Amino acid sequence: MTTFLANLESMHPILFEVGRFKLYSFGTFIALGALVGGLVLFRLLKDRKLKTTHLFDTVLYTLIVAIIGARLTYYFTFQEQFKNFWQVFYFWQGGLLALGGILIGFVTFLRFNKKAKQPTWEVLDALSLSFLIGWAVGKVGCQLSLCTVGRATESWIGISGMFPIDLFSSIWAIAVFGVLLYIYLKDRLSAGVVFFLSAEAFFLGELLIKTLKADFGEGIVRAEAMIYLALIAVTYLLFWRLHGPQIERPALSQFFSRILAKLHRR
Fold first, then answer.
1. CB-based burial of residue 13 (10 Å sphere; 0-12 exposed, 13-18 middle, 19+ buried)?
2. Rounded Cα gap, residues 32 and 30, in angstroms
3. Among 45, 96, 128, 240, whose CB has the most other CB atoms within 10 angstroms?
4. For position 109, what pLDDT does the model report?
5. Does residue 33 carry a pLDDT above 60?
């Protein structure tokens, strides 16, 4: 583990260059993460005997829209960093807000999946797992490019004297992926449960890891944390609504009637 961290510390945002050609670690690992995630999604859908003929187009368009969404979200959040609107198309200069890309990409995927007439929850179970492994791979590129600055630390888990936020995010995603893949392959849960567990674990993990950022609690980082809290709450409520114990309406009505009667007597 120590050797691995030392290697990351010594790596450069540019993996290698030949003449004017430069291979950037950020873009390389993002592309690699998309490839790995797509292959995992294909395999999981195949195992559940679901259609995959539409998968390439769906994943491709989702990725394109997600990247554009992440870029636009970054632009509207940090407009002071841009001289004019057209700089939003200078992707090579960096600047993506992951949360915006995730939410916009998710909506896009749902639309294409509905158009392909695929079962929503079964596909979302597989999608959530493929997203986790793709995220884990992509975050390695973020760590190599120093996308996120962590708080200063003298701990052995620190890199260059700070917490490696993106590396923590990658490790957490791999751990969640491994556990939920095992559960998924057992095929004992209702469709959609793995998706909700993945989303809840991902949002909660990202929120906790972001508390180690150097600028946690300031400006946009505080707003981002609030959004993660809201997503955690919404995910839990949806999960409880769809998979929690069902209360019959007559029983629920009687429950509220008894409460109102007690309040009236007081």
1. middle
2. 5
3. 128
4. 92
5. yes
pLDDT band at 42 (very low <50, low <70, confident <90, very high): very high
Angle, in degrees to the nearest 10, between helices 193-210 and 219-243? 160
Residues 96 and 74 sit within 8 Å (Cβ to Cβ) = yes
Residue 232 has a CB neighbour count (10 Å cut-off) of 18
Could you give the CA distance from residue 79 to residue 249 in angstroms, rounded to a whole number? Answer: 50
Amino acid at 89: F
What are the tokens at 133? 């492994």
Alpha helix stretches (DSSP H) within 116-158: 120-144
Contacts for 129-132 with beta carbons within 8 Å, 24 or more apart?
129/40, 129/41, 129/44, 129/177, 129/180, 129/181, 129/184, 129/194, 129/198, 130/37, 130/38, 130/40, 130/41, 130/44, 131/37, 131/198, 131/202, 132/173, 132/174, 132/176, 132/177, 132/180, 132/198, 132/202
Average pLDDT over residues 1-6: 47
